[in-house]
Amino acid sequence: MQVQVVYASRHGASRRYAEAIAEVLEGEAQSIDAVKSFWGDAIVFVTGVYGHSLNKDMIQFLAEHRSELYGRMWAGVAVSLIPGEVEWHGSKIGGPIYVRQYLQLLERPPLALADLPGAVSMNTLNDEEREQVNEVFEILGMTPADLDKVDPTLVWKVANRIKEIARQC
Ligand SMILES: Cc1cc2nc3c(=O)[nH]c(=O)nc-3n(C[C@H](O)[C@H](O)[C@H](O)COP(=O)(O)O)c2cc1C
To answer: Which of 49, 56, 58 to mutate to test the pocket of ligand 1 (most atoms within 8 A of CB)?
Structure first.
């Protein structure tokens, strides 16, 4: 089975996971900009969460290619900072909720859905982005002083764990 891993990544976390998943499944990871056709028997989509929504570039990509993707086998991965399901201003949010957004974008049921821990390097963000991340930290019960404690190497660790587990299977 040929696996095509398609990602949209702003700060690199989804790209790293996409590359790790592609390595494990002996497929190929491609950024949405590099996708010329859908050749995979199965397609794995990987993207980060911004403002409680999957990355808009991925949403737009899926909407634009909806007809080509119709009937294809797929899996969806959401990369975010909020690990579990939480209630926020009357809505449910968090990794397990974010990843379900794929279900509204693709017709057929997925092979799998997964939410993985993201990371962010605060010094790469502009003021508006910092504010959004601040809100996420508030939800997590952390203060702005904790912002720079987010460990960007977490993504490497989880990606490597995915590879290790796959090697043992
Ligand atoms: C501006 C901004 C907004 C974000 N909003 C959320 C959010 O609403 N919920 C969440 O869990 N994580 C949020 N995150 C964390 C990202 O999902 C996380 O950094 C992820 O690793 C990004 O993936 P990427 O680097 O592949 O784009 C946000 C990050 C940034 C920079």
So the answer is: 49
